[in-house]
Amino acid sequence: MSLKSFLGGKKIHFVGIGGVSMSSLAKYLQNEGFSVSGSDVAMNEEIAALEEAGVRVRIGHDPSAVIGADAIIRTDAVQDGNVELAEAAKRGIPCFSRMELLGEITQNFTSVIAFAGSHGKTSATSMCAHIFLKSGVRFTAHIGGRDLLLDNFYAAGKEFFITEACEYRKNLLRFPRVSVAVWLNCDKDHMECYRDEEELRETFRLFCARARRCVVNADDRGIRPPENALTFGIASENCDYRAVSLKESGEKYAFTVLERGERLCRVRLRVPGRFHVENALAALAAARCCGLDVGSIVRGLQSFTGVRRRFEKTGVFAGAESICDYAHHPAEIRRTLALARRRAKGRLFVVFQPHTYSRTRFLMDDFVRALSAAENLVVFKTYAAREKFDREGSAYALHERIKNSLYAESVRELEAYIKKSVRSGDVVLFLGAGDIYYLAGRLLVGLGGKPISGRKG
To answer: Do residues 271 and 389 both lie within one domain?
Structure first.
């Protein structure tokens, strides 16, 4: 079935278009000749980029926005009572979820490569896209973040589709078909959607089992590789793709890749963090499953310079660095704190914004352990996303559990604290998957700092 037949026409309206995945899908439809419009509650960089590309976006939701639309695409963050969704239902306009559209789009490609896991999906997907770009193969990439070169959407043909597969509400099982499934790691997350950790792990395993080929992390104890899996790792000696002879310089790693015990290549990454070695191995293994040559793989990995909001240096004020990272899970927080400590010449200040009440409530003890290791910690008010207020899972409840932490409700409070406390040589690390990235930018300007746009630290 063609996309036009599936959607019922060419005029498509996105409710919640400002999300990074939603904006990427909007770009895809526009690239395919659809007339795209959208709405969201606030302006952001994704919306600005869409408007620059000619997409009409309304800030705020209004029933009149859906008039004339052939179909509605909604994000999970939009509540069922949304006025645009209600008006669409009244007019009989079909409504599809983000995942339903993504699944249908994959049907237009010969092969689908999907990266799943609790962490690293965006970076690994981007790395894989860079490999395919250097190979000259026809591909399209749907990326859950803004790659510094490719952005969140890149179209160069319909042979391969490279995407992320999210475990929220078991969405990763809704792909009609996957050629290469990549399982990066497994940690507790989105537990409001799962009975327990075993159901979460089983969902990832089923995702892999349904694919024609699968690639899994042999070093992750939470993963039991399916029998047909190709494996990658650093510590595991018998995996199919292993990184050895690691050498670190300025927190960036070079390593040799062994393919089934034989030397394949030497890779030098341009992004900081040892965890990126695993992401690179995953992207490399997926590319090898698709028959790509070693030269393209090395060139692709070494051309990857990062994704916005992944340990991104966003500016300087009073001689102190501002760094933003998407870390919103305890495991991600621990590794990002370790990286930032090595980066800071002076003191490290940490501002953490929890993302959703449910994640904070379900992982409260893990958050407390991870953040208790942070000196000069400020817990900022929760980014609720799709959820209603929950006192037990609130940022303030988290602050109450962490000794010597501060709590901030507004950017003005943050600005006053940082202006009083931070000096030259210090690092201020902003952590979270919500709007803390944009708030940090406003704070930087308020402090008279010097923003740096689109560059990694």
So the answer is: no
